[in-house]
Automatic annotation (TrEMBL):
It comes from Ceratocystis fimbriata f. sp. platani. It comes from the Eukaryota. Residues 27-36 have a biased composition (Polar residues). GO terms for molecular function: actin filament binding. This is FRG1-like family protein. Transmembrane segments: none annotated. Residues 37-56 have a biased composition (Basic and acidic residues). GO terms for cellular component: catalytic step 2 spliceosome; nucleolus. Residues 1-64 are annotated as: Disordered. Coiled coil: none annotated.
Length: 135
C-alpha cells in the first residue's frame, strides 16, 4: 500500500463526534459506488473525481509544471530510483519505497528530497528545476 507524502507543518484533519443516527446515514453513503456515480448527469461521460491527488506521468514536455518526481529505471532491471536533492544542493539517486508491483507509473515520493518543482524560464521553452530546499 502506498502512503501519502506528509510534509512538516501539514494540519491533521479534525475529527468530529457523530451520533448513532449520523453513523447509519454515513455508512449508507459510503457503500460501494456504482459505475454511474462517476458519470456526468447530462452527457453520461465519465468524470474524474475532483479530489484525485495521484501522481501522473507527463506525456509531453508541455505537461511538466509544478511538483514532480523524476523516476529512473536501471538497465539491469533493478529497483527503480528517484532523482533527489539534499539541503546542500547535492543531487543523487534514492531508491523508491512507495511503488506497487515494481510498476514505475505507480511510484510516489516517500521523502521530500524526491520532489522537484518545475518552472518554465520566461521567454523560452526551457525548464528550471528546484529541489525541496530551494536549490
Amino acid at each position: 500500500m502506498v502512503k501519502a507524502l506528509v510534509f512538516k507543518g501539514d494540519k491533521k484533519p479534525k475529527k468530529r463526534k457523530r451520533t448513532a443516527d449520523n453513523d447509519d446515514k454515513t455508512n449508507q453513503a459510503l457503500s460501494a459506488p456504482t459505475s454511474a456515480d462517476n458519470r456526468d448527469s447530462y452527457t453520461g461521460d465519465h468524470v474524474e473525481p475532483e479530489n484525485d491527488d495521484r501522481w501522473v506521468s507527463a506525456d509531453q514536455p508541455s505537461d511538466i509544471s509544478g511538483p514532480l518526481m523524476v523516476v529512473m529505471q536501471s538497465a539491469a532491471g533493478d529497483k527503480p530510483y528517484a532523482l533527489s536533492c539534499d539541503a546542500t544542493g547535492k543531487v543523487f539517486a534514492l531508491p523508491i519505497e512507495n511503488i506497487v508491483d515494481g510498476n514505475v507509473s505507480s511510484a510516489e515520493p516517500h521523502d521530500v528530497r524526491q520532489v522537484w518543482v518545475a518552472n518554465k524560464a520566461p521567454g523560452t521553452e526551457n525548464l528550471r528545476f528546484k529541489g525541496a530546499h530551494g536549490k
